[in-house]
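Incident log, entry 3
Record: 5-formyltetrahydrofolate cyclo-ligase (185 residues)
Problem: checksum mismatch between cached and fresh output.
Input:
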Amino acid sequence: MTDLSSIKADARARAFARRKDAWGQGHPAQAGLLMQVLEAHRGRPLAGYLPMRTEIDPLPAMVEAVRHGPVGVPVTPRIGLPLTFRRWTPGCEMLDGGFGTQIPASGEEVAPEVLIVPLVAFDRQGGRLGYGGGFYDRTLAALRAQGPMTAIGFAWAAQEDEGLPLEETDAPLDVIVTESEIIRP
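Fresh output:
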């Protein structure tokens, strides 16, 4: 395997296996450190994600953040476009958003200044390996072009990988938070 897409596919497969193992161990206070990081951003528009499968769960931090300002969740567009974010509140009516996601049935668009980013693998330099669609890379590039933006990767510590196959278009993270550590590249 010499082409980058094959190398990335192998890296994702290994990271998914590590993530599944971490998820299976069940850590009760997953979002505690994420809440600490978000305290410095209270009142700024925030977007997070609704966890799927074995993703680490940011919902406790998002519920806390709603008390201080708008919180959005991603709406997945057509391939090749950046994400948009619809305002979310705990218990709001949800619809199928495609790709196995849920989105609020109604609500205005949120332009986040702080973004909690799901990922498959990360490194200590702020590198992120995503799912392969480029949605977050395009989204981070567009948001950063509009002004100050903080990208917080949220993952299990087991998802760390120092040998990530990254490209120039792979948007870096400003902070990485795991269930056990805050990493500031």
